Amino acid sequence: MSTEATLLERCENKCELCSAQTTLTPYVVAPHSNVTVDHAIMLCETCKSQVEDPATMDVNHWRCLNDSMWSQVAPVQVTAWRQLKHLSAESWAQDLLEMMYLEEDIAKWAEIGMDDDAEKPRDVNGVELKKGDDVTVIKDLPVKGTNQVIKQGTVIRGISLGDDPRLVSGKTNGGQSMYVIAEFCRKK
Ligand SMILES: [Zn+2]
User: Fold this and answer.
1) pLDDT range class, residue 96, cuts 50, 70, 90
2) Could you tell me the pTM of the whole model?
3) How far is the CA of 11 from the centre of ligand 1 (A)?
């Protein structure tokens, strides 16, 4: 039996993420690049295009992860986890991520394939921070080289991103410019 036929049998002709019964094509879960039963999943056109380009994600479509995240199939788990990560600005997606359990090697696989995103600043909840966001500082932070402290709860408006993905910069309400570590912020 060909790989694709095996995959179609596994998924019972339903999209492995949203269960749509439509034309399905194999999607290889990065960083793997060959269609194998262990590394590929069968996806409908909607899921596939949005998995390939997360910028086009239709948030409501991905409510389907509520079911598919419990799949026993490793590459489905990996893809579901990554899609939830992309959606982690949504509280329901965060709840699902918290419930989700991945075996250690599967968790590693899931993270490796998201390397692109390691270069983006993320707040304490892993939410990507973008230029112009407002953030709240979540703990008192000493300012290097001074005896000043940025107080917990300080709001920094309209942040900018620099070359270092761990840092964001912006101004407080008092007009003071500062750099803070992204993971000590929470997006407002
Ligand atoms: Zn689908």
Assistant:
1) very high
2) 0.62
3) 11
